[in-house]
Every structure is written in structure tokens, then in C-alpha cells.
Design a protein that fits this description.
By secondary structure, the protein is α/β, with parallel strands linked by helices. Among the domains are: 203 residues, Periplasmic binding protein-like II (D-Maltodextrin-Binding Protein, domain 2), CATH 3.40.190.10; 112 residues, D-Maltodextrin-Binding Protein, domain 2. Helices cover 38% and strands 14% of the residues. Helix 2 packs across helix 12, helix 12 crosses helix 17 and helix 13 runs antiparallel to helix 14. One of its GO terms (cellular component) is plasma membrane. It is found in: Cell inner membrane. Belongs to the CmpA/NrtA family.
């Protein structure tokens, strides 16, 4: 068995055990998952009285093959477009009134549920960290390594994440630049290693910790301890001292600050401005069977993303998301971060709309469109840390690009955008967003992923 599969096997146990424990906490904090997250299109189950949008006059050639689908989500701001599309009636508007949103106890639960599909009591798709759709398609994180083709259909959000650090480390050099904290972490290594948690191994929130640490000269595999903790256990684990840092989406980092048990060392939007975060993806067989329903779902999500990017709507969005059937928390925990306003918890204040979460359009252009160049960065980072073999990036990343072409269905996004008369200027003409630059000056050129890997001082791959 390869080291990759050993890691996945060990971490599956952590996630499964964590999911069992988190179910109790989730019931108290977020509702009892997994469960339907919303009521009918005309009634807001969150108690906010959201008004449904009238069903559009759908032409026969666009009428969905089915009105029913079951989508999984995790209660963090990345899920906002799915919830708003349900609660504001945007799914119903495009002929999908019977969308069921199912709250997942953990990312491991979401993976397990998409494996069995809604016919087996699971889900048809939903919200995902990257590159989970690719790993599931390759059978790298599924039971028995079963390959379950997934189709990535749109990006849900940029930014909206942070890394929180326990209060006991305040004033010890923890910030965007980590070089000044390196001495402390080295000192802790020989006794009680600095422990940083994420919500699932080898995906987004693991990568943010790794990049942040490595940029400061800290090897995340040798100098600290990494573990998997479901988002809902964040506050409890920080209180008990079982972890020193946590990487996840709002509202959890801010909850740690509000509960005065930690501070925000940095926002991921500071590390990589307008970075891709989480995505909407479905089982490939569901999409192949229901191509018109797939586009109807996309249209509902895209309209919700546009609604969310009107900052005047974000107070209402916080009310809806904070409802007991969704996040079950005080709306003010969401309201300020939604406006780019953060109390970092250590005396620093951030008030910058450019660092808020975006759903439809940010400084670099489209948020919703799934750029293939972003898929390639996540796969390149997977190679960097030994999660995928180096041959994915060899020969001009031929193997990675073949996988991306199988999973990323940006063409379906474009078809849906044109059918709903999205302005041509808002429909990207290139599958690459171009060269990306990080806070430490490192650049990722999608045309040269091997050069990016060579430029990185800390990595597990020999290149």
C-alpha cells in the first residue's frame, strides 16, 4: 500500500471518529445533521420570512428532467449560495422547486454520502473543498478505491477563510508572516508540538495551513502536528487546548475570537488575494442523466451568487444563514465578516470590503466560473506535499490536465450562463485566470507548474 493510501486510511479513521463525536455537538450548535436544511420555496424555514421568486416561464427545451435533487453542505459561508438559492426561490424559479439541502456532519460524511448517492440515502452532490471532486473521481479517498466520476460545475466563493490561533500564543509572532514565530515552533517541537487542525486532509484548508507555515520557513510535516477536526468541534477543542490553530471558513474563526479563546492570525484573502475556495460538484451519472436539471441548478446558484454580492443584501443573508436549520448562530457573527470587518482578537482590526467573501465577481473577474487553472494549482499543491505522485505534473502536466478535463465541466457553466442571458463580459473566454501571486512573492503560472514547484523551498516532492 502506497504512503498516500496509508495517510488516507489513517485520516479516514480520524474523520469518521470525529464525525460521530461532532454529531452531538452539531445537534446543539447547528441543528441535527444530516437533515433537510430548508422548507418549501415559498416559505423560509429559517424563520426570516424570505419571499420566493416567481417561477420563470421555462421554455420546453430547458425544462428540467426532474425537479428533485439532494445536495450536501457544511455550515460555513461557502454554502451560502446553495442556501440562498433555496430560501429565496431561485432554484424554484428555474424549475427545481424540490431541492433538498442536507447538512453534513463532516467532510468525511459528505464523501461517504456522495459515494452511495441519494438513491441509497446519501446525496447527489453539493459543496466541496478542492480537489475532493478529482480525488473521488480517481478513487483515491473512497471506500475500496472505487472511482466515482464527479463533475465540477462552478466555484461557490472566493476568500471567506481564516486561521485562528489559541489565545496563549498571542504576542508571540503569529501573523501573516510566520518567520518570527519559527523559533517558538521549533522549541515546542521537542516537547509538545504546535498542533494545527483542518477539516479534511489534503484539501483547501489543509493547503492554507501548509502554504502559510512553509512561507515562514516552517515545515508542516516535520515541525508541527496536523490533525483533522470537524468544524463544529473547533470551539470545544480550542477551549480544551487540544489544538493550537484551526483553518476553516467563517463563521468558525470569528466564533473563536468572539468566545475569547483565540485570535485570527491571518485571513486567507491576505495570503492569496481573491483565492478560489470551495466548489459545487455533482455525481457525473446524475448530470449525464439530468443535463437540463443540472443547468437549472446552476442558474439558481448563479442568481444567488449575484444576490449575495449586493452588499445591501448581506444583512438578510446573515439572518437566513444564522437560522436554526442552517448555522444556528447569532446573525451578527456573520454580519461583520460579510462586510469585510474583522476583529482579529489581538488588537488588530480589519475593515476592508476587498477581504470579504465574494460569490459572483471579485477584483480578478468571475468567481462563479470554474477556471481550470485553479484546479491545476490544487493538483500541483497535492504533488508538492506528496499526496499525488509527481507524474501528474510531468510532461507539461499532461496527466493532471486529462483529469481536470474529465472533472471540470466549465462548458456546462457557460451554457447555463448564456441561457440566463448573463452579459458576455461576465462569461470568461479563457479557462485560465492567468498567473497567480501569493503574499510571499511566489507566483504560479498555470502554463509552467513544474517551475512553480521548483521555486518552493519546502516541499516533499523531489523536483
Amino acid at each position: 500500500m502506497s504512503e498516500f493510501f496509508k495517510q488516507v486510511s489513517r485520516r479516514k479513521f480520524i474523520v469518521t471518529a470525529g464525525a460521530s463525536a461532532s454529531a452531538i455537538l452539531l445537534k446543539g450548535c447547528l441543528g441535527n445533521p444530516p437533515e433537510a436544511g430548508g422548507g418549501s420555496a415559498s416559505t423560509s424555514s429559517s424563520g426570516t420570512g424570505a419571499t420566493a421568486v416567481p417561477v420563470a416561464n421555462i421554455s420546453p427545451d430547458q425544462k428540467p428532467e426532474t425537479t428533485k435533487v439532494k445536495l450536501g453542505y457544511i455550515p460555513i459561508v461557502e454554502a451560502a449560495a446553495l442556501i440562498i438559492a433555496k430560501e429565496k426561490g431561485f432554484f424554484a424559479k428555474y424549475g427545481m422547486p424540490d431541492v433538498e439541502l442536507s447538512k453534513q456532519a463532516s467532510w468525511g460524511s459528505a464523501r461517504d454520502n456522495v459515494e452511495i448517492g441519494s438513491a441509497g440515502g446519501g446525496i447527489d452532490g453539493g459543496q466541496w473543498q478542492m480537489p475532493m471532486p478529482h480525488l473521488i473521481s480517481e478513487g483515491l479517498i473512497t471506500k475500496g478505491n472505487q472511482k466515482i466520476p464527479m463533475y465540477l460545475l462552478c466555484q461557490l466563493i472566493t476568500q471567506g477563510n481564516g486561521i485562528a490561533v489559541a489565545s496563549k500564543h498571542a504576542g508571540k509572532g503569529f501573523g501573516l508572516e510566520m518567520a518570527s514565530a519559527k523559533g517558538l515552533i521549533t522549541q515546542l517541537k521537542s516537547s509538545t508540538p504546535f498542533t494545527a487542525a483542518h477539516t479534511f486532509p489534503q484539501v483547501n484548508q489543509d493547503f492554507w495551513i501548509r502554504y502559510w507555515m512553509a512561507a515562514g520557513g516552517i515545515d508542516p510535516d516535520a515541525d508541527i502536528k496536523l490533525l483533522t477536526v470537524p468544524a463544529a468541534q473547533t470551539v470545544a477543542n480550542m477551549k480544551t487546548g487540544t489544538m493550537d490553530a484551526f483553518s476553516t471558513g467563517d463563521p468558525w474563526p470569528y466564533r473563536i475570537v468572539k468566545d475569547k479563546i483565540g485570535f485570527l492570525a491571518m485571513l486567507t484573502g491576505e495570503m492569496w488575494r481573491n483565492h478560489p475556495e470551495e466548489y459545487f460538484a455533482m455525481r457525473g451519472d446524475w448530470v449525464d442523466k439530468n443535463p437540463k436539471a443540472t443547468k437549472a441548478l446552476l442558474k439558481g446558484i448563479m442568481e444567488a451568487q449575484q444576490w449575495l454580492d449586493n452588499f445591501d443584501n448581506r444583512k438578510e443573508a446573515a439572518q437566513i444563514l444564522g437560522g436554526r436549520n442552517y448555522f444556528n448562530l447569532a446573525p451578527e457573527i456573520l454580519a461583520n465578516p460579510f462586510q469585510g470587518v474583522y476583529d482579529m482578537g489581538d488588537g488588530r482590526k480589519v475593515d476592508d470590503k476587498k477581504l470579504a467573501a465574494y460569490y459572483w465577481k471579485d477584483e480578478k473577474g468571475s468567481v462563479s466560473y470554474p477556471y481550470k487553472s485553479h484546479d491545476l494549482w490544487f493538483i500541483t499543491e497535492s504533488v508538492r506535499w506528496g499526496f499525488l505522485p509527481a507524474d501528474y505534473i510531468a510532461n507539461g502536466a499532461a496527466k493532471a490536465k486529462e483529469l481536470i478535463d474529465r472533472v471540470n465541466k466549465e462548458n456546462i457553466w457557460k451554457e447555463a450562463a448564456k441561457e440566463m442571458n448573463i452579459a458576455a463580459a461576465d462569461i470568461p473566454t479563457d479557462t485560465s485566470r492567468g498567473v497567480e501571486e501569493f503574499f510571499d512573492g511566489v507566483k504560479f503560472d498555470p502554463a509552467k507548474p513544474e517551475e512553480y514547484l521548483k521555486s518552493l523551498k519546502i516541499k516533499k516532492v523531489a523536483i
